[in-house]
Amino acid sequence: MSIADERFIQNCKDILENGFSDVCYDVRPAWADTGEKAHTIKKFCIVNRYDLTKEFPVITLRKTFFKSAVDELLWIWQKKSNNTHDLKSKIWDAWADENGSIGKAYGYQLGIKHKYKEGEFDQVDRVLYDLKHNPLSRRIMTNIYNHADLHEMNLYPCAYSMTFNVTGNRLNGILNQRSQDMLVANNWNVCQYAVLLHMFAKVSGLVAGELVHVIADAHIYDRHIPIVEELIKREPLPAPTFEIDDIDDFYKFTVDNVRLKDYNYHEFNIKIPVAE
Ligand SMILES: Nc1nc(=O)c2c([nH]1)NC[C@@H]1CN(c3ccc(C(=O)N[C@@H](CCC(=O)O)C(=O)O)cc3)CN21
Ligand SMILES: O=c1ccn([C@H]2C[C@H](O)[C@@H](COP(=O)(O)O)O2)c(=O)[nH]1
């Protein structure tokens, strides 16, 4: 049975049984169709550890759209784009302007160059440089929560910081996330950053180790509650096998260079509403 399923079931049970409801408060998010406020039940600070040497952390309770998730990951980390025209799915359309821009968020921040004694690097290239040249460094991290630019972002970054740590031949990482929509994007984000660790490890001569996911506000939206209640009653299936091609340059990866072999999942035919 998939370890990601176990974590997801545990997290959601904890939120539903012990979480805090914001239903009596005036909140920001709303449902686009009716304009009603989108309330949540939430838990403060959930930490999940995924050992990538054991299993790829994808859920089987419903299909995680792995290729779309990897496409969005590469849109942010490799293309460093903030324009939805460079993205295959429509998941960001609601937050884009008439030209497709989501503002100075995500990829835009990763692409900004900064000065170092070795020259100018953007955040991604600095990480890749340090993984090769300074693997013992405790300073290998990215942070896209740039306060100076928040007013020009259509949605503030949720998964905002990655800390990379090399231990022996293992590349471990901590993903810091301030806000998590458990049903829509929890496993989506976990799969993305597991793939990122695998890709960075591959191009740095390392193996992917542990992914630690720290979530400050882990919530389930009101309209998602009945869906989550049904999902977590399901019997998890075995996790698939993760495959990655031998590629030595991060910028040469495409979505087809990573695959899930024998990915079995439960049928799920509901279109999930996404709070805006
Ligand atoms: N409320 C909210 N939740 C989010 O998860 C979220 C936002 N807003 N705003 C920005 C991005 C967009 N994200 C999204 C939005 C939609 C899907 C989604 O609809 N996923 C579908 C499959 C997508 C596909 O067809 O490939 C799913 O069923 O999981 C995923 C991530 C994550 N983010
Ligand atoms: O990668 C992502 C991007 C967004 N989310 C979710 C988390 C929240 O439900 C909303 C953002 O609303 P805020 O009020 O700004 O927190 O988007 C996610 O889970 N993963």
The proportion of residues in beta strands is 25-35%
Q: Sketch the topology as an H/E string, one letter per element.
A: HEEHHEEHEEEHEHEE
**What hetero molecules are bound to the protein chains?**
5,10-methenyl-6,7,8-trihydrofolic acid, the ligand O=c1ccn([C@H]2C[C@H](O)[C@@H](COP(=O)(O)O)O2)c(=O)[nH]1
End-to-end separation: 34 Å
Molecular shape: globular
Number of domain units:
1
| CATH secondary-structure class | Alpha Beta
How many strands? 10
Contiguous low-pLDDT stretches (5 residues minimum) are none
Q: Which topology does CATH recognise?
A: Thymidylate Synthase, Chain A
Summing up helix and strand content along with how strands pair, one would put the structural category as: alpha+beta
In the sheet with the most strands, the strands line up as 1-2-8-7-6-5
The CATH architecture is 2-Layer Sandwich
Q: Mean pLDDT, rounded to whole units?
A: 98
Rg on CA atoms, Å: 19 Å
Number of helices: 6
Largest sheet: 6 strands, mixed
Percent in helix: 25-40%
CATH superfamily: Thymidylate synthase/dCMP hydroxymethylase domain
Organism: Qingrenia yutianensis
Catalytic activity: dUMP + (6R)-5,10-methylene-5,6,7,8-tetrahydrofolate = 7,8-dihydrofolate + dTMP
Domain Thymidylate synthase/dCMP hydroxymethylase: 7-275
Pathway: Pyrimidine metabolism; dTTP biosynthesis
